Amino acid sequence: MSDADNPATDADAHAHHDHHGHEGPGYVTPQAAIEESEPEEVAYVIGLYVGTDVDAPDFLAVVDTDPDSSTYGQIIDRVEMPNRGDELHHFGWNACSSSCHVEGLERQHLIVPGQRSSRIHVVDTADRRDPELVKVIEPEEVFEHDLSAPHTVHCIPDGKILISMLGDANGELPGGFLELNDDFEVEGRWDTPGDIDMNYDYWYQPRHNVMISSEWAAPKTYYPGFDLEDVEAGKYGRQLHIWDWEAGTVEQTIDLGEEGMIPLEVRFLHSPVSTHGFVGAALSSNVFHFYEDGGEWHADKAIDVEPREHDDWDMPVPGLVTDLLVSMDDRYLFFSNWLHGDVRMYDVSDPANPRLADRIWAGGLFGPRNPIEGERDVYGGPQMLQLSLDGERLYWTTSLFSTWDNQFYPEEGEQGSVMLKADVNPRKGTMALDQEFLVDFGDLPDGPARAHEIRWPDGDCTSDVWL
Amino acid sequence: MSHALTFEWADGRTARVDARPDETVVEAAERESVALPFGCLTGACATCTARLLDGHVAYRRPPRGLKPDQREAGYVLACVAEPRSDCRLRVGVDVHRELVDNPWK
Ligand code: FES
């Protein structure tokens, strides 16, 4: 057996570049990610000032997640963007485990789009604790391709980057996909304009030559805020699009119906042989299980969150399933009920029949205002989630989208977000809120900020894909 | 011809800037380092919503982020609105907040 076959005997087992026994970024398999990854020491978290009167640009925060550090649970660095008004939202790596065969490529650059501005930033994280903005693609360059409102960033094999775009250059439909090359230059459109109408999140499973994309609405519809009239007028999405990944064409469209209003995050199981995954329908507060059977794709409602009466509300409050993720071992599904205020953990060993394992209440309309005694108030409910690669630590932030926050949780903008964490016991299927960890985005030099998506330097449960 | 813009915030603060011909309200404010909220700068997101108290504006691009009744009520999108006279505008993030209530409450 050569050293390459058995990285554990390699004297350089923990050297920065070659500790996984392969040439490129990431891990050979999801199981390798679980076994070989070190606990996350820093998190990259989006912080924003859009939607407040604070006169400062949005930023990327570096949060210390090392419990042995004296700055545990604190923001230790911030990369300010050059302009105001971006609404930084979702972001992603230039490379993930789908490129682990590509020699010389590293998971080093974060692609950080502005959801409102359509500006795309590139941040170099060579120094993990002190990342640096190295490039900005201005909105005009994006509008040239008749696209706007960048959302999900996935690296695609061989160094390219694909970004789902929710609108055309005017903030109307249709959306599409923008491709960047490995020098972070706009290469052009990936799809054929008009293949889809609405767009939002997407995930690809290359071994099955499939990609699935979901739908929010036209930017001009959701940007200003949530209006029920727009729902009644059919301006919000409820479809999934099944793509031929190689050809970049839509092969099938699934209408999720009334129970699938506003399908947002799409998560395939991590195992590259799997044809199962989940999507959360935010407005209908359901989780759908999608899968392939006999060459056709199907989506069935697998979890139904019941609305709840609230004294201050005229209508029962929907949970609003805004984010979900699958643990790296494909055993657990976590999702957030942003309006109710809980984050749930389901055993999805049988993906068609999820079983509620545990849940935590923090903030929101029904959770405790003070989930950690002696610490500040929490307003918004659990929202963007991120799980450690070993599945033992779940983190979340509380802001959804500045204008929607302002409608449902006005205090979120005034007091700022928090980032919280639960310790997860995957063997028992339980979670416990970490009483030592609260990152206060309300306490920053420029004023209170919102916090959104979270990423790890060594790969994520919400972005790594395997060939 | 340039036009005088007077901004009024909810907290009582005011500011005055001169808008050059063909400048939008946001461009004039930015040039004189007065911070107004904005996002898309293309008339789609309504982050820059202001309330026109006096004067009139013409739109450089269609104000897609506002619904017809909101326009009728005097709301304008400062990023695509070019002043056509001296204007007095209520600005700040709370102007936008007036547009979007919690629809269920
Ligand atoms: S900044 Fe988006 S509409 Fe004015």
UniProtKB/TrEMBL annotation, chain A:
Pfam families: SBP56
Ranges of Low complexity composition bias in the record: 1-10
InterPro entries in UniProt: Se-bd (IPR008826)
UniProt-annotated stretches for the region Disordered: 1-28
Biased amino acid composition, Basic and acidic residues: 11-23
Domain of life per record: Archaea
Similarity annotation: Belongs to the selenium-binding protein family.
Protein name stated in the entry: Selenium-binding protein SBP56-related protein
Organism, scientific name: Halomarina ordinaria
UniProtKB/TrEMBL annotation, chain B:
Reported cofactor(s): [2Fe-2S] cluster
Domain 2Fe-2S ferredoxin-type positions: 3-99
Domain of life: Archaea
Keywords (A to Z) from UniProt: 2Fe-2S, Electron transport, Iron, Iron-sulfur, Metal-binding, Transport
Gene3D superfamilies: 3.10.20.30
UniProt-listed InterPro entries: 2Fe-2S_ferredoxin-like_sf (IPR036010), 2Fe-2S_ferredoxin-type (IPR001041), 2Fe2S_fd_BS (IPR006058), Beta-grasp_dom_sf (IPR012675)
Tagged with keyword Transport: yes
Family statement drawn from the similarity comment of this UniProt entry: Belongs to the 2Fe2S plant-type ferredoxin family.
GO function term, MF aspect, one: 2 iron, 2 sulfur cluster binding
Species this protein is from: Halomarina ordinaria
Alphabetized PANTHER family for the sequence: FERREDOXIN (PTHR43112), FERREDOXIN-2, CHLOROPLASTIC (PTHR43112:SF3)
Keyword Transport (UniProt): yes
Entry protein name: 2Fe-2S iron-sulfur cluster-binding protein
